[in-house]
Amino acid sequence: MEKGKGVMGSGQRWAVDFSDNSTAPSSRDILDPLGFTRASVDQDDSTVSRQKKDAESNWKAQKAWEVAQAPFKNLLMMGFMMWMAGNTVHLFSIGITFSALWQPISALQGVGKVFEPYKDSKVELLGPKLLFIALNLGGLALGVWKLNTLGLLPTHASDWVSSLPPAQEVEYSGGGIPI
Amino acid sequence: MAIRSFFVPFLLFGLYFYSSLSPVLSLYEDQVGLMDWHQQYIGKVKQAVFSTQKTGRRRVIVSTEENVIASLDLRHGEIFWRHLLGSDDVIDGIDIGLGKYVITLSSGGSILRSWNLPDGQMVWESYLQGPKHSKSFLLVPTNLKIEKDSVIVVFSNGRLHAVSCIDGEVLWKKDFEAESFEVQQVIKPPGSDLIYVVGFAASSQFEMYQINGRNGELLKHESTTFSSGFLGEVSLVSSETVVALDSTGSILLTISFQNGEISFQQTPISNLYEHFSGPAIIIPSSVPGIFAIKTNAITIFIRVIGEGMLEVAEKTNHETAISDSLPLSEGQQAFALIQHAGSEIHLAVKLAHDWDGNLLKESIKMNQQRGLVHKVFINNYIRTDKSHGFRVLIVMEDHSLLLLQQGTIVWSREDGLASIIDVTTSELPVERDGVSVAKVEHNLFEWLKGHMLKLKGTLMLASPEDVALIQSMRLKSSEKSKMTRDHNGFRKLLIVLTRAGKLFALHTGDGHIVWSHLLRSLHKSEPCQSPIGLNLYQWQVPHHHAMDENPSVLVVSRCGPSSDAPGVLSFIDTYTGNELSSLSLAHAVAQVIPLPYTDSTEQRLHLLIDSDKHAHLYPKTSEALSIFKREFSNIYWYSVEGHNGIIKGHALKYECTGKVADEFCFDTRELWSVVFPSESEKIIATVTRKLNEVVHTQAKVIADQDVMYKYISKNLLFVVTVAPKGCGEIGSVTPEESWLVAYLIDTVTGRILHRVTHHGAQGPVHAVFSENWVVYHYFNLRAHRYELSVIELYDQSRADNKDVWKLVLGKHNLTSPISLFSRPEVITKSQSYFFTHSVKAIAVTSTAKGITSKQLLIGTIGDQVLALDKRFLDPRRSVNPTQAEKEEGIIPLTDSLPIIPQSYVTHALRVEGLRGIITVPAKLESTTLVFAHGVDLFFTQLAPSRTYDSLTEDFNYALLLITIVALVAAIFVTWRLSERKELQEKWR
């Protein structure tokens, strides 16, 4: 149950614990009621707790996959927003594009943290992580693509020659109508 | 849908953002006069008539050489009203009729007009025709009446007219058709109805016609032959006596025609003045009994004492000017005489019959920069003690107009500025400790008051009086007229050369004259009889390492009107106006070519081409020579010979041959020539790019991130030729026999890069050349409308430079120097549009780095300056631009160019007689300074793409301040609140 507690203690303010606490060794300073012997119950419950642990890891794995898939929804949302924003450069489309770029980057920075709650020796997290990273990279690509469609990426010749000074001429000629 | 409606405000915001980007140049009412100034002038006064009889406002009516008729306030010299007649409508005479009409005779005596004296409205206009061209005279006699109608007597085009003063109807006319008759005077003796017309016929015959002024009947015609002929003008010495000179200029002839009998009296000048040599000339005047002749540098006043006897009244070698006579009471006539003596002028008012006595004698200190007195006009007033007082209007050599009264200059007008020949600019000195000229506010209280007012204004608490005060403070801000350089480069000196040979420095802030200098080298002198100022060039523009030097300008002038007269160069310090030096050249100046090289003191090298096609290098220093020799083989020059339709290109050869060895003189050889067939083409306009124009980039990015490379060359000449028949006025030819051909010629190689023919088009052509485009204005005879055409040049040989990686790594040769002898592959794009106005001048805005988009400045026929975006003259405009092109800013094509009333840069003002528009870049990239000159001067600042690099004048500082304060307060309050809340939380 330390793991469960860990969930509760790691930054979460509160949690409702639906598991039966009656078999847990008393972590509080409250004495057990008279006539109640804890030891016998504990011995009987060892198989039950194993089963419970299995269920929990299953649940964790499931959750991890869910978390890994979450950016997909985001991706769809972002795509819709981008379509709405149009292809002209103005305040709104720039805002959308930069948020589309920033979200995947910040998510990628925090990959470890996102999957930390589901860390378990029995839970295989590599799959969900890879999916998560792939989806976020997809989001990033979408952002970059949008940036390009807005014409903010220097991918054209025009972006490199627009400030080229005119070439100097070797010859010089002056004159005109006599004054 | 919810999301859509959520986006709508954003879209609206975006639209607003876009619409605010499209430049609208209009001003708010209270911004007039902040950036701009306008000065009104009239030009050099030819004739002045006073109107002071009535008790109303005292005024003087003047006509000027700029073809202006104006009514000036005698008290301050301000203009009551003013009319500018066309340049082909030269004023011959003015007078006042019936005390309430100004009568003007113009166009060689063929148009007579009457204007209402108080407000200048035209009352009537008459066309007077005649059998032949002649001198014209305008007389408004006070006592000649035909059936109660006051009469104006006009002699013009060989015909004498009597015109009604009320409605301009011709009452009678009399022709003088004798073939060789040349009228010299039309005389109306007071107190009779007779009119005398005297003149010469066949150069040796004196003719006199006596005419009845009531009906034009010829009463008498007498003629006498005088064998040795006549010279020049005649001077009227009484109503029935004139004085003339014989053809040798050494014998004075007194001709009297009393009672219709002509009698001659000859007096050799040597009898009057023993040292007489050489021909004399008569100074035209009309003082009874006295006339003046000038011989060599001596002026002789001669009195006529009855029966043609002459007597010298005074001889003087001072410069003198004499006025016409002014009738005083009791049949007396007074006149004014002005003599120069050193830095003073002596004014004497004398009675006509009494030379030795003076009614008035004053000496007035006169600014040497005004030169000599050219004309004098006298007027009298009755003092409170019933004696006569006199005021004198004088016209100076620099064309300024001064009113003298009671020994002082009451007012002066700098009317030389009405005839500007050339303009250049100069920077002001850099602000240093002790150099600052700006005045500090009077005292602390004033200063505080000013700032309180400003604060009130920004917080919108000011009352209407306060607003007016703030406005006047804004307009008079001493910041504008400081004599030091400013950060934005708005404050500069405009150096202008006027036709009078005077150089003025005007401050761009408020237009005041910083200094003025009558060029000594443009003074008449022995070797240089009639010097003419030609052009101004920037000689030395110190920056970087030559900061301590003052900038200077070069004034090129010529001794006389012919093109092979020797030239004169003068160098003027632009901070002080002092003439640093002047050079009288041995050679003529046909062309001045400023070279793109400067020496170590930032003096620009100039090449002067003389009439024998020798090139002379200035400054004549060994350093300049070594710089020049280094670039020798790359310097070419071309000449446009308009009269025979040839454009020739030349290269330089070493050293002049013959005469004296001069290492600064170079022979030239002809390289190429473009000959236009004289039977079908005649050159009417040539335009080049401005030498100091800055171009930011050679690439033009078009829709879809594509690139076009501009063909940018400084050595391009735009030439327009028309059919010789079509040189006349618009409409004088049919569209079939008139055409207009535009050429773009490379002036180094003589290669014609582009040629386009406009059939059925006619001049005059006005054009402007900038970067890679040229815009020109002409008349389309088929459409009966003016057209503006644009030609843009693109370099096809660079078009392949589209590999991004090469460009990123810099592996391209787009910026390496190019030679014009390599064959350019130029493609052109052009388009034409109708344009409503006829045009007096076209210019283009220029900015410091050439990044800001350009505007054309069009001087319209209404003497206003219209700013037209270059985007309207884009050959890539099409009727239905694609989405990408629209995004690029391409305007859908229309047949005519729009004239948006708000884009007149002169707003409500007019620059009368507009002749030129000059644009100068400010240091701030967005802004350009515009100076328009004609009879009036106008200056303003323009920002063709709005002031994107600085806050505008109307920026809401109050809102910014309030927002900042509110934000700080909010931060503080929320911080306190959160702290309190945290504390409460902890106690829970």
Automatic annotation (TrEMBL), chain A:
Pfam families in alphabetical order: EMC4
Protein localization: Endoplasmic reticulum membrane
Keywords recorded for this protein, A-Z: Endoplasmic reticulum, Membrane, Transmembrane, Transmembrane helix
InterPro entries from the UniProt entry: TMEM85/Emc4
Regions that span the bilayer: 80-105, 125-145
Top-level taxon: Eukaryota
Recorded topology in the membrane: Multi-pass membrane protein
Main location: endoplasmic reticulum
GO CC annotation: endoplasmic reticulum membrane
Family: Belongs to the EMC4 family.
Protein's name according to its UniProt entry: ER membrane protein complex subunit 4
